[in-house]
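Entry:
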Amino acid sequence: MDALILLAEDDRSIRETTRLGLTDAGFTVDAVGDGLRAIDAFRDHRPDLVLLDVMLPGRDGLEVLRAIRADGATPVVMLTARTEATDVVLGLELGADDYVAKPFDMAVLVARVRANLRRARHDLGHDHDRATLALGPWTVDPDGHRVTGPDGDLHLTPTEFRLLVALAGAPGRVFTREVLLGQVWDYPDVGDTRLVDVAIQRLRAKVEADPSDPSLIETVRGFGYRARS
């Protein structure tokens, strides 16, 4: 899979080991060690995917993520040595597509990178001629990657959009977190179910009239989630 990866990691040893591992896997890698250089490299080189350390000098990873998301939907995988759930959740809420905790296995990181690239390239295809979907006041156009409502278009990240299409495409069906990881994130065997829970929270914040009392995307306790039928 030919792709340009921007790797932003301040630890020289981790940066070089990761760069070599990704290069061996067939990727072209642009590696930088601070947040300011990461933003410049992103704007100058337009990578296919960004691997972004949370703790960076100059600008931290979350600031870099905000700059990337203000500029587009390039896949971003956060790299973090932190284990606190709040750090993971904050990155995902700001629009990261995934995260990998350090120390990580190189094979796992490569698998995550490939999955994110496959999803991004699939999103650009628009070749399935899928029917328009509805969820409450929202009309979802899967091929046009567009969601409209009474007040106009709704902005969703690519991950949020894939999640909405999955749920709205089968109203009343209960999706387990594991099934959603496979269908939306392309992770049938590896992944953290917090990815699903945070994405559901983000999606509810945008589509529900009252996200604290959701009526369109329901939680089925002990099982997962479903869209209102």
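The mean pLDDT is 89.
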